[in-house]
Structure formats: structure tokens, C-alpha cells
Design goal:
The protein has helices spanning about 1-40, 120-135, 185-210, 210-220, and strands at about 45, 50-55, 60-70, 75-90, 95-105, 110-115, 140-150, 150-155, 165-170, 170-175. It is an alpha+beta fold. It starts with a helix and ends with a helix.
Length: about 220
């Protein structure tokens, strides 16, 4: 009987270790993918403090997500999120199409700096568009739902004197990304999200930003 108990305990311990190893491998895979591909596309550093995804459900969180501002702009980061929710098909990580069911970002912070003739959001967006166009064959990706809500944006410019104002960004929601024209490459899907996010933030800036900030950004959009 004791031998059976010891054997059972040993099996359970081994199962626990195996689950922990799988979980750590998944977390590491997702973290590296975000940082490496994100940095390449944005043309600046993209970092994540920690990723924690359940090996059973594919649900989890990405913590400490930061996108560094391009060179020549004032603030250290253009986009930060303390944590956001993600749900994905774990099996798809090892296939030729990554399936992400949901990405839910709440209360992120965005820093928008307007210069002449450019701002930091468009600087990063142009790099994403260029990299997505040049992507060689690789994995495809589909995202069932992307939602960003509760975002605040700090608008800053020195055009006509230093101005700074905080605005609230309307909720951004996209569904079934990467499915309209058949399967789409990872970079193309990320590009679609980036274009919508940048457009929404700048439109909100035009509507609610004050003075020189509003006028400078409106001129860029027109």
C-alpha cells in the first residue's frame, strides 16, 4: 500500500512538473513573439514584463506591455498597458495559422507628440506598413475580437509654444481580423489593427484637443 502511495505521489509530481514546463514554454513563446515581431514592425523597442497563459484554456494576461517612442520624440514610451487579456488556440501556435480568439486591452496610456510635419504615431505606423509590405512568407493569423477601451492619450506639441492636453479615446473594436480575403499574414493583421488605432486616436485628438494641438493634427489628417 505504501509503495502504491509513493508511486501515485510520484506520478502526480511528474504531471505537475510537466504542466509547469508546458506553461512556461507557452508563456515564453508568446512573450518572445510579441517582443521580437513587435520591435521589428514598429522600428522601436517593444517589451513585455510577463506573460501568463493557462495551458488548459489558452486564456491569460500580458503584463507590462510597452512600446518605446521613436528617436527624436520626448517621452520614453508611446504606448503602455499594465495588463491586457488574451485568449488563443494553443494548438495553433504550432501550426501555420495562429488563432487568437480575443485581445481585450483596458485603460492603456498613449503619448502623442506632434512635430512638423509628423507625429510619433504616424512614424511608427509608416514603419509597420513598410515592414508588412516586405514580409516574406510565414505564419498567418486570425483574431476573432480586438477591443481597446478606457484609453487616455496625452497630446503634446511645441508648435506655436508648448501645449499639452489629456483626452479620452473612444472604444476601438475590430472583429474577424484576417478572414475577409482568406488567410492573412501576421504582419498584415497587425497592420490593420495599428491603422485603426492610430486613426481613432488622431480623430479623437482633432475633436477634443485644444488650440495648436488640434490644428496641427487636423492639418496632418487632411
Amino acid at each position: 500500500m505504501k509503495l502504491f502511495k509513493y508511486l501515485l505521489i510520484s506520478i502526480l509530481v511528474l504531471i505537475g512538473i510537466a504542466i509547469l514546463a508546458i506553461s512556461m514554454a507557452i508563456d515564453s513563446t508568446v512573450k518572445n513573439a510579441i517582443e521580437e515581431r513587435g520591435s521589428r514592425l514598429a522600428g522601436t523597442s517593444v517589451s513585455v514584463d510577463r506573460v501568463s497563459i493557462s495551458p488548459f484554456t489558452g486564456k491569460g494576461e500580458v503584463n507590462g506591455f510597452k512600446v518605446t517612442n521613436p528617436d527624436g520624440f520626448r517621452d520614453p514610451y508611446i504606448f503602455t498597458s499594465d495588463h491586457f487579456f488574451i485568449k488563443l488556440s494553443l494548438r495553433s501556435l504550432f501550426s501555420d495559422e495562429i488563432i487568437i480568439n480575443e485581445i481585450i486591452i483596458t485603460n492603456p496610456s498613449v503619448f502623442v507628440e506632434q512635430k512638423l510635419p509628423e507625429n510619433n504615431l504616424h512614424t511608427i505606423l509608416r514603419n509597420i506598413q513598410r515592414e508588412a509590405t516586405d514580409q516574406v512568407e510565414g505564419k498567418n493569423m486570425m483574431i476573432g475580437l480586438f477591443r481597446m477601451s478606457g484609453a487616455t492619450a496625452t497630446l503634446f506639441t511645441e508648435i506655436g509654444g508648448e501645449r499639452i492636453v489629456d483626452i479620452e479615446v473612444d472604444t476601438i473594436e475590430l472583429s474577424d481580423i484576417g478572414t475577409e480575403d482568406g488567410r492573412e499574414a501576421v504582419d498584415e493583421v497587425i497592420q490593420q489593427i495599428a491603422e485603426r488605432v492610430v486613426q481613432s486616436i488622431l480623430q479623437d485628438a482633432v475633436q477634443t484637443g485644444g488650440g495648436q494641438i488640434r490644428d496641427a493634427i487636423r492639418g496632418l489628417l487632411e
